[in-house]
Amino acid sequence: MKKYYIETYGCQMNVSDSELVSAILTNAGYSPADTIDEADILLFNTCSVRDHAEQRVLGRISNELHRKQKNKDFKIVLLGCMAQRIGKRLINENLGIDYAIGVDQYRDLPNILADDGGFSLEFNPSEVYDNLMPLHQGNYCAYVTIMRGCNNFCSYCIVPYVRGRERSRPYDDILKDIREAVTNGMHDITLLGQNVNSYKFKDQDFPALLKNIEHDVEGIYRLHFVTSHPKDLSEELISTMANSKIICRHIHLPLQSGDDDILKRMNRSYIYSQYLSRVQALRNAMPGIAITTDLIAGFPGETEQQFEATLAAMREIEFDYAFCFKYSQRDGTTAARYNDQIPEEIRLNRLQKMIDLQREITLKKYRSFIGKEVEIYVEDFSKKSKSKLSGKTRDFKIAVLSGSESQLGSIVRSKVVDATAGTLICD
Ligand code: SAH
Ligand code: SF4
Ligand code: F3S
Predict the structure, then answer these.
(1) Which of 125, 131, 77 is nearest to 104 (CA)?
(2) 276 C-alpha to ligand 2 centroid (Å)
(3) Residue 136 CB neighbours (<10 A)
(4) Bridge partners of 224?
(5) Under 8 Å CB-to-CB from 274, ≥6 apart: which residues?
(6) Taking the complete model, does pTM exceed 0.85, yes or no?
(7) Homologous superfamily of 141-367 in CATH?
(8) pLDDT tens for residues 26-83?
(9) Which fold has domain 3-120?
(10) Which ligand gives the minimal distance to the CA of 296?
């Protein structure tokens, strides 16, 4: 029996897709390898969002080519967004990649693997992988995809070009997937989509989906979702969150920039004051809710003053955490054609300023928890020491605590005794 091993890059959607691919391969008679060394088929599930993400995978592939000398049946498969974007070209360049499979063609994998090599990259706008239950890899937490693709076309972003148009997974499949995960001990569920707020299946929208999940499935301790687009964050969603016993007190709400002209050129469909009013509405409905964000430094044409507006927004809102990115020019996107690209050195410099500022804010936020009691869903042993456990609070902060193996997969209360800019240390 042939063994496969998947390396996953990029966002949680890819983590979830790798679980889908695992289900497809095991259903077809392949078995998972415990380590890369045992694998006959090595799959790379890739990301194209920034150039750096693509370069990393190319480096990894060249490091694994030596396996082909030892095992002449050893095959390398490219999956995901980079396969979609440039898979055909990479195969033609003879880099050692045998197959490239696009994001809508995973069902076809067993067929294609029967050939000696090749690609399957067509979009299939109706593919939602219905009637297929992914093979969840986590022990205590599960990622559950609820929609695929994106229609927003933010001007910097490659995702709509590599993931295709938005479409929602059938409600019954989502429910079945969550039920099975919970039965297997995964009480922490994260719903995934590029823009979960535009979930629409038959007459069910996203708030309805959340309410139905809470009503219909027993045993969920924590329900998260990513990512929300600020333009689609409705009052209905805010009140659904506020009234829920299981939805986390956290939202990931990418701001991208604090300057209105840049937001316009990014095609984000909101201005800063509208974003701020969403934040206020969330905080009014749920005092203490954690808000995290994504920010881009050095978007084409960004002046020093416009960059300062982003720093000012960070100070005003005080995000619990911000994922800060240096703008990366992606071929085919609108912003890549702007002729006022910012030099690398300035982009780097701005990125560093953002990171430094956020670190200060995060540390202050985390330290404000010292002395308080928090509820932690325990997910694992701590990476640093087997005698400690790690988990997350309801507002999605990583916490380490003392405890025993029997607490894995349960909620415990613990007092915060110290904090870093990323971890609550509990007793
Ligand atoms: N659908 C999600 C995730 C998109 S990718 C969303 O809308 O938030 C995650 C983040 O990567 C984006 O929020 C953005 O901040 C960043 N990103 C996307 N394209 C980028 C680019 N070309 N350069 C730098 N950062 C980028
Ligand atoms: Fe990209 Fe914008 Fe879609 Fe997010 S919403 S995936 S940033 S195009
Ligand atoms: Fe990357 Fe594709 Fe996700 S480009 S961020 S893996 S949707």
Answers:
(1) 125
(2) 19
(3) 20
(4) 190
(5) 230, 231
(6) yes
(7) tm_1862 like domain (3.80.30.20)
(8) 999 999 999 999 999 999 999 999 999 999 999 999 999 999 998 989 999 999 999 9
(9) Rossmann fold (3.40.50)
(10) 1
